[in-house]
Amino acid sequence: MDTSNSQKAQLAALSAPSVIFTVVMIAFPFCYTIWISFQAVSATGMMRFDGVANYVRMVKDGQFWNGLWITIYLYVLSLTLQLVCGTALALLLFRARRLPGFIRSLFISPFMLPPVVAGMMWLIILDPSLGAANYILTSLGLPPSNWLASPALVVPTLALIDTWQWTPYVALIVLGGLQSLPPSVYEAAEIDGASRTKTLFRITLPLLLPTLVTAMVLRSVDLLRFFDLIYITTQGGPANASTTLNIYGFRMGFEFFQFGYAGALMITLSALVLGVVLALNRLRNAVAW
Amino acid sequence: MASIRIRNLVKRFGNVTVIPDLSLDIPDHEFVVLVGPSGCGKSTLLRILAGLESVNEGDVYIGEERVNTVPAAKRDIAMVFQDYALYPHMTVRQNMAFALEMRGMSKAEIEERVQKAAKLLHIDGLLDRRPKALSGGQRQRVAMGRAIVRDPKVFLFDEPLSNLDAKLRAQVRAEIKALSQQLRTTMVFVTHDQIEAMTMADRIVVMQSGVIQQVGSPEEVYEKPANMFVAGFIGSPSMNFIPARMTDGEICLEDGVSFPAERLFPVRSQAIEAGQPLTLGVRPEHFLFAPDDPAAFKAQVSLVEPLGSDTLVHFTAGGIDAVARVSPDLRPKPGDVLPLIPAPNKVHLFMPETGEAIC
């Protein structure tokens, strides 16, 4: 009996730091945000219970729906581009196994840059009058573009920048998946008479699906909370054309000090992230082999 | 269906020569087992036949066609891999149909072939399952089914039983043998298990270090091993090797124990010169319990392994450690002394320097 109690005490002592960390750093802020989303908070910090008023306001708020649309548009576009380019890059690196190490490192270096640095770099490249992007376009006889200053182009441009930065990350995950595929399956396919294209589409990609879904989960969490790159490059503009739900919530909280409403927006965004992750987990189970 | 001819085959991996110079003929319809220890080049040879490895020198023919540069897909061979190599994301039906789809066969014909092969292998109830939902034995059958549907010229098996437990291995072994008799297709089977080789093969090819040591029927390689390697590799437990010398019509062991040579091998003893050093080879099952024979030697039992049907007795005699297979009725115990004598005409003689058998 004593031994059992002493073991329990030991277990409690050993797990206490991680439990305390989880409660203080994760559970408390999350619960506090849920609580605040049901409050009316004045600019002076006075709070009173306001029921679901913030959520009702959200449903009626055109800016919320705009932010949700931009969040999903940016998410779908970026994720698609990153999966396609990441898989292609991984297949290239997998086939070019003799490629010198520093060239391989060069391919995968962008995601090591802090988003702020990447954002500043692309701001300079995409500058409408002085940037290299328009210089290249005009050199080729093409009309210059407004890139981040155009409401129609801003989301695709942000998606391209994010794809440039995060494709190598996806490629690394896919490369790990490729390296773990059983070689004898490829030999069987060779004997079965599958061409390279047939092998890619009938064997490699289906076998990579669980890995691709893992990459989707990891990128989805980041992409749905897309913030830093937008904040550095456009601050949500032009004309709210790149105001994602995260940017909108930030503005409501820290520019307009409507913390209750900002809390409701953030809880909604969290629910969206959670829903997507749960759906992807189900997908991962469905495609597991 | 086709014969296989291999002429002066050389295979190197970098600076390492795995197969130095190998020639072999496998007639049509024959079930040939390549057997040897790990690293002897048997799997490499099989992969060369499959087209999964290139040839450095020499020629490989399947039927009348030289296939050195023919890709695997065009050789009309089917291979069963050690790990089965089933497509894990496909159902059993899709696995079996894949090669036929790649050939552009019609759906109706694919389904007919799949059903026929599935019935033959008793997997027709598993067609909609994925490999992860199958047992080891079922996966093995699916791998064979995938090979059978193609109706290939040659079947290649790369240690397909090594992942099965002992009981299932014996069952599948019998099934493959029955299948080979039913299909009458040329089959090349690689294994390191001499029991698989003995039980399934029409002919056994024993290999060591990329060199064929002996080619023959299971009876031939067991009864007339070409050298000490074959003699030691085929048979379980291994043949006992005993250093000896021929003197005045007697075979003398190192510690003075001797047997009349003519009694052990009346014909062959005439070819042996007096004083010639020899290595005697005696299989455990060829020691006879001979309490009334004055020529029997005294075997000091050191270890007993009862197998049920018979008993393995480890003993010391003539300065060597050896194993004898005796009747379980003897019920020997460690420390007992058993009078044993090698069975007449069952003793093998080898040259100690070369290991070659003396005819």
UniProtKB/TrEMBL annotation, chain A:
GO cellular component terms, A-Z: plasma membrane
Presence of keyword Transmembrane helix: yes
GO biological process: transmembrane transport
ABC transmembrane type-1 domain: residues covered: 68-278
Major localization class: membrane
Localization per Swiss-Prot or TrEMBL: Cell membrane
Gene3D superfamilies in UniProt: MetI-like
Listed transmembrane segments: 12-38, 72-94, 106-125, 153-178, 199-218, 259-280
Membrane topology, from the record: Multi-pass membrane protein
Domain of life assignment: Bacteria
Keywords, ordered alphabetically: Membrane, Transmembrane, Transmembrane helix, Transport
InterPro entries: MetI-like, MetI-like_sf, Sugar_ABC_transporter
PANTHER family attached to this UniProt entry: GLUCOSE IMPORT SYSTEM PERMEASE PROTEIN GLCT (PTHR43759:SF1), TREHALOSE TRANSPORT SYSTEM PERMEASE PROTEIN SUGA (PTHR43759)
Family: Belongs to the binding-protein-dependent transport system permease family.
Name of the featured protein: Sugar ABC transporter permease
Phylogenetic placement of the source organism: Bacteria, Pseudomonadati, Pseudomonadota, Alphaproteobacteria, Hyphomicrobiales
UniProtKB/TrEMBL annotation, chain B:
Signal peptide: none
Subcellular location, principal: membrane
Intracellular or extracellular location(s): Cell inner membrane
GO molecular function, one term: ATP binding
The keyword Nucleotide-binding appears for this protein: yes
Keywords from the UniProt entry: ATP-binding, Nucleotide-binding, Transport
UniProt xrefs under PANTHER family: BLL2173 PROTEIN, MALTODEXTRIN IMPORT ATP-BINDING PROTEIN MSMX
Stated family: Belongs to the ABC transporter superfamily.
Protein name: Sn-glycerol-3-phosphate ABC transporter ATP-binding protein UgpC
Gene that encodes the chain: ugpC
